[in-house]
Amino acid sequence: MANQQQQRVIRVRAHDGRSTAVTLAAAATVQDLKTALRSSFAPALASRDFHLFLKGVNLLADAKVGNLPIAHGDSLSFIPVAAAKPTPPSTTAPPNIFSGKKRKFSWRGGEDIYAKIAKPTPPPPPPPSPAAISCHGMLPLNPTQMVEHLREGMGKSGGQITHSEEIPGREAMFSDLPIHLSSAMRNALRSIGITKLYTHQSLAVKSAVDGEHVVVSTSTSSGKSLCYNIPVLESISQSSSPCALYIFPTKALAQDQLKTLLEMKPAFSQSEFDVSIYDGDTAMKDRTRIRNNARLLITNPDMLHMSILPCHGQFKRILSNLRYIVVDEAHYYKGAFGCHAALILRRLKRICSSVYGCNPTFIFCTATLANPREHVMELAKLDRVVLVENDASPCGSKKFLLWNPPITAQERRSNPVLEVSRLFAEMVQHGLRCIAFCKTRKMCEQVLIQTRQILQKTASELVDSICVYRGGYVASDRRQIEADLFGGKLRGVAATNALELGIDVGHIDATLHLGFPGSMASFWQQAGRSGRRSKQSIDVYVAFDGALDQYFMRSPHKLFGKPVEHCQVDSHNHKVLEQQLACAASEYSLRSEYDECYFGSSMNSVITTLKDKGCLINNSSGGNSGVWKYIGHDKKPSQNVSIRAIEHHRYKVIDRKSNRVLEEIEESKAFFQVYEGAIYMHQGVSYLVDKIDLCSRIAYCKVFDLDYYTKVKDYTEISFIGGDVDEHPASQCKPDITRTTAQANACKVTTRWVGFDRILKSINQKSDTITFNHLPPYSFETQAVWVQIPQSVRATVEQRGSQFLHGVHAASHALLSILPLHMMCNGSDLGTQCAEPQGNSETSDRILLYDKHSGGIGLASQAKLLFGELLASALELVETCSCTNFDGCPSCIQSFACSDCIKNLDKEAAILILKGLIQYEKLYF
Ligand SMILES: Nc1ncnc2c1ncn2[C@@H]1O[C@H](COP(=O)(O)OP(=O)(O)OP(=O)(O)O)[C@@H](O)[C@H]1O
């Protein structure tokens, strides 16, 4: 015992898996510990500095190290410092790390988080720098020259360019300004340089003026705004009462549109009318004035939901004179948000009509979709809409490159983040203004960091000419970035799909996609951000090693020949309907007889649910008046209904130093990003999360410069809770679909977080795994589509000596990978049940995909409809993949969405299962 107090034996594990026990005296210092490790792990650590971790926290630190108790029996791990980044010498002597004080450090409490050791270190041999192989030239190039430059330069040795395609330019088709346009309107158009309309604009304007609901579905930058601005401005400038409501899904778009309207407005000086934005950023002091005066109110669905509809009396003048409702970017309304938006539009229509006797004309604009008319009819529950889709705007030619990162000496594909970063650097160096689209916020941050590192070496003056743009940033930061991009101060941004929408950031020459963005509509929308008007542009699609990207790299015609998808919005989601009907009832009592035309046939059953919950009461004493009054205890139920995700709780990420909220993350997503020990990235800066307060839902973090990033390990269980899912509406009108035994059912999904991997940035490889079990599981109810695998198929697989469960796991991954080819969804919309290796008999004989949105947004019923095609497509994917590994590769059955992405997989078995299922279904019908 006495000996233990004086001598401590700790176990230290190296990043490469080696492990040893180290014995240290009680009075040992940091230096002693380092010396012991250097001798234990020589020669690897002979001249390298390293990070040393106890339960995820770097122990080699500043003066606080003196308080650090490393207890006898503790397990530590270390990672050598990869890149030589000398830090300022420490001014304090190496502290005694075993001070004998009571153990103060607590991982869960996490008060003490220690910075990287502040000691200069001799630089280790640097890994080959991307900058060393990047171009240092700065000569301005046009897109055609850039294609050649890439062919001869960074794309030459690795053979990255697997395909090039040129989409030719198109001449504009004009028509004269319609004769009925007022002279003020003509002047207004002239003031923004417009003397003729494109033919699609003329058609849209005419239809709207005639009172027809219209949807304009044309390419990016095809002049869609004028399709609504002309009829609206004509209407409100010609008499003093008509009003209009513009609804944009983001505040940035509202600001952008206000700018255009204010440019046109002076031409109408004789008839004064107020155009104002009314959104969450509108100052309280301005709100009454705007409510009293605005003739053209620009807002968003959130504001309609939270503020305008619940207080509709304050907007009486506008709502009773509403001539037009403009819904721009209608394709944005899908998934959970689309479901809420559809019901908010119904609430708006109901209030306008039932309370104020007004039936406005809708004008929708959307990106190119397969079903624009059906989509907006469902969105606003309209019976008739005029479709305008013959795009007559001009466009310049576009060069597309499909770019597959080369296979390295280690037989792995080189990191696509790095490839995009190199391309990004090339573009900005050669004067091409560029947007690098990334699928996630984290990838944007990684691309920014890597590109800056490259530019530091190749053109350091351009390091600050790029930044990240994403939805989570505070509004003023985003406005600044948009202005800087427009004004030329910035040459490029790494952006999420937040920049997909039509915010005017000036001319963009080049767009990059880091992986397929999830849908063809998104792909074209992103690509359309470059080459606005008739200027030439370049677009490069950089592939991940995943199945879908590799499928497109192998079969480019599938990409370029593929039609854009249908956009689905499911306004029948029971949970959303319940929330929205409570809001609607609080605005104006529900009437069973009349309101079904807004809320559909499930309205009455939801009314019963709300009645049982004590939210509604029948207006008559006999209880049969058909009028339902809201009596819930929330005065404004909309305050508690979040429409951007169907969940109420969010975790705040707070920077300890500045006490600033960096981000708010929905509860269901929070633990994928923040947990104790997580590396959290924000604006190119990495933070270490040192504490999660589960009660107040706050993750505290500090700026930390570490050589690794983290990836959480999670495990998901799915159980059916009874109840079939409604048939997808398209099932009635698609007689040619492949029939299937797949079923769609309500289910409960529970995710548990069991630890995280630390991945070394320098080699992009796992260093070690930290386990934990303190995070609460997260459960939600949703919908799943699944198919039972017949026993005969299982028997065939087992007779061949293949692992059945590993085959199910692999086949599920393949199915998930090909989904975006068939449905408008991306990897984060659906999940698959990855079979447990031990095989729970209840769950092991099925392939299951579940809707990741709480309550389900109709994806399961849509997938059920397509299940036969999905099976065939998954089989084609696995069979045509040339890899010979029994556990496949990322191009076929390995999925990075699964935390065990490369474990428990069997390619051969997957083929047998998919084939067996297809065969079984054929025989069954
Ligand atoms: N008839 C026209 N003649 C010439 N230029 C036009 C005409 N109509 C629109 N434009 C110009 O085309 C550009 C793009 O217009 P606008 O922003 O309305 O397109 P959009 O289709 O709404 O774009 P996005 O898809 O990004 O939302 C603007 O600069 C606009 O002035």
UniProtKB/TrEMBL annotation:
Protein name (Swiss-Prot/TrEMBL): RNA helicase
Coiled coil feature spans: none
UniProt cross-references to InterPro entries, sorted A to Z: DEAD/DEAH_box_helicase_dom, Helicase_ATP-bd, Helicase_C-like, HRQ1_WHD, MZB, P-loop_NTPase
GO terms of molecular function: 3'-5' DNA helicase activity; ATP binding; nucleic acid binding
Keyword terms, alphabetized: ATP-binding, Nucleotide-binding
An annotated GO cellular component: nucleus
Domain Helicase ATP-binding residue range list: 205-387
Taxonomic source organism: Leersia perrieri
Helicase C-terminal domain span: 419-577
Gene Ontology biological-process annotations: interstrand cross-link repair; nucleotide-excision repair
